[in-house]
């Protein structure tokens, strides 16, 4: 007898299994031994500053082991919140204060808490599409209706957004966007679109989640002004993370938003996990105090830029000329549109049989249908493997 036979689950689990399964499958595939995987959105483990992490961990344990092993405030370690607020001021010219920062277990927890805070079953969430799979899945869990609004080279299409408001009106509770080196397209929004978009959302009194997971991974050194800096009413909620620039295993991200909003997030977070992993916050805070994170990010960026260029050249050489893409200025992904005749799920099945994985494009839309797009991650494979894997994909595409 099956372990779940006869059990009565919440209705939402039926709705989310599809999206979450994509996510779980993807995380698993990227770990499978012997596979050349362009599927995940993972930083490269060789960039982790392992010696510094070992040393800083030992240092905090020597200083105050009991403190590091205790519960701490649900907001997270105060000193780390101060350091993050200072980094946001320095890097992005924001006026953020420590009281406007809440530490979360990866920005993914920020997405989940946003669902808890804003969404009743049937409420509409607008997604810039294609969109980050983990955000689609997290908000679907709250039985949101996910509505796709397309994007162009400058960001979300404003006329399509206006049409969505004409259709759904005040059933729209949230808009989710990822304006810097977006997952999955690698695109960044222009300054004028940022401005126009925030003014529009605030006029409509709808909260915006600005997922800034890749904001610090720029390969030109340029950093765009975050959406939150255009906000006049405080309706923009910024999600940051150390996962892509430092180590995802520390599970440390943050929410930055107006204090009145943050208090609501905090009340929910205290219910979810009571206290963060104090030891990880203290270790990260000590690292920020005694080491140079910006120098580290500079080295990480140089490696990823090299890998991006190698993948670019391989795609140019191996893919048919009808495949289109643009060069990402940062982040971790190429987004390739294949000829219409190619179903990227079918290509995926064939490439996995040859030990090469990527992410089929359909996963990044709320209601995936047949799709001819693909996402290729370039950060996590050594250069030789990138060349080999892209050659396999190029051959399979040409055969289809
Ligand atoms: C756009 C985006 N947002 C959020 C996340 C979640 O990252 P974390 O929870 O590790 O901060 C990811 C991870 O891939 C991502 O690509």
In short:
The chain is of the alpha/beta class. It is 45% helix and 14% strand. The protein folds into 2 domains: 11-49 and 299-399, Aspartate Aminotransferase, domain 1; 50-290, 3-Layer(aba) Sandwich (Aspartate Aminotransferase, domain 2), CATH 3.40.640.
Task: Write a concise keyword list for the protein shown above.
single chain; 400 residues; alpha/beta; Aspartate Aminotransferase, domain 1; Aspartate Aminotransferase, domain 2; 2 domains; eight-stranded mixed β-sheet; three-stranded antiparallel β-sheet; 12 helices; 13 strands; 45% helix; 14% strand; globular; binds pyridoxal-5'-phosphate
Fold and architecture overview:
With 400 residues, this protein is α/β, with parallel strands linked by helices. It has 2 domains: 11-49 and 299-399, Aspartate Aminotransferase, domain 1; 50-290, Type I PLP-dependent aspartate aminotransferase-like (Major domain) (Aspartate Aminotransferase, domain 2, 3-Layer(aba) Sandwich). It has helices at 11-31, 50-68, 78-92, 106-118, 133-140, 158-168, 191-203, 259-273, 278-290, 293-318, 344-353, 383-399; strands at 36-37, 101-104, 124-129, 145-152, 155-156, 172-177, 207-211, 236-241, 253-256, 333-337, 356-357, 359-360, 373-377. The strands form 3 sheets. An 8-stranded mixed β-sheet has the order 2-9-8-7-6-3-4-5, sandwiched between helices. Strands 10-13-12 form a 3-stranded antiparallel β-sheet, covered by helices on one side. Strands 1-11 form a two-stranded parallel sheet. Strand 3, helix 5 and strand 4 (145-152) form a beta-alpha-beta unit. Helix 1 packs antiparallel against helix 5 (133-140). The model has no long low-confidence stretch (mean pLDDT 93). The structure holds pyridoxal-5'-phosphate (PLP). Residues 41, 106-108, 132, 134, 178, 183, 211, 213, 241, 243, 248, 253 line the site of pyridoxal-5'-phosphate.
């Amino acid at each position: 007898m099956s372990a779940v036979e006869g059990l009565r689950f919440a209705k939402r689990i039926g709705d989310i299994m599809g999206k979450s399964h994509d996510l779980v499958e993807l995380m698993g595939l990227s770990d499978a031994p012997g596979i050349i995987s362009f599927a995940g959105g993972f930083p490269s483990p060789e960039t982790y500053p392992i010696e510094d992490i070992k040393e800083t961990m030992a240092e905090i344990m020597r200083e105050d082991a009991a403190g590091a092993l205790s519960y701490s405030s649900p907001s997270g370690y105060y000193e780390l919140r101060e350091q993050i607020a200072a980094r946001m001021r320095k890097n992005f010219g924001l006026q953020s204060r420590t009281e406007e920062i809440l530490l979360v277990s990866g920005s993914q927890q920020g997405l989940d808490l946003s669902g808890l805070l804003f969404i009743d079953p049937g409420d509409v969430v607008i997604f810039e599409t294609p969109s980050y799979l983990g955000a689609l899945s997290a908000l679907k869990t709250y039985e949101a209706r996910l509505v796709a609004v397309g994007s162009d080279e400058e960001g979300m299409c404003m006329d399509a957004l206006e049409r969505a408001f004409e259709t759904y009106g005040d059933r729209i509770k949230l808009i989710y966007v990822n304006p810097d080196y977006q997952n999955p397209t690698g695109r960044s929004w222009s300054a004028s679109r940022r401005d126009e978009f925030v003014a529009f959302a605030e006029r409509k009194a709808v909260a915006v989640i600005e997922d800034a997971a890749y904001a610090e991974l720029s390969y030109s050194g340029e950093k765009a002004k975050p959406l939150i800096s255009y906000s006049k009413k405080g309706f923009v909620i910024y999600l940051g993370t150390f996962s892509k620039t430092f180590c995802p295993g520390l599970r440390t991200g943050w929410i930055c938003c107006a204090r009145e909003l943050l208090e609501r997030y905090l009340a929910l977070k205290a219910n979810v996990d009571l206290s963060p992993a104090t030891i990880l916050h203290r270790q990260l805070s000590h690292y920020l105090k005694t080491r140079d994170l910006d120098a580290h990010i500079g080295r990480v960026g140089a490696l990823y830029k090299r890998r991006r260029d190698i993948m670019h050249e391989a795609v140019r050489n191996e893919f048919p000329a009808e495949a289109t893409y643009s060069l990402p200025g940062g982040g971790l992904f190429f987004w390739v549109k294949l000829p219409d005749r190619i179903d990227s799920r079918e290509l995926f099945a064939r490439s996995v049989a040859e030990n090469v994985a990527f992410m089929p494009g359909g996963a990044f839309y709320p209601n995936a249908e047949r799709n001819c797009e693909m996402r290729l991650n370039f950060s996590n494979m050594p250069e030789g493997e990138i060349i080999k894997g892209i050659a396999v994909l190029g051959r399979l595409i040409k055969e289809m």
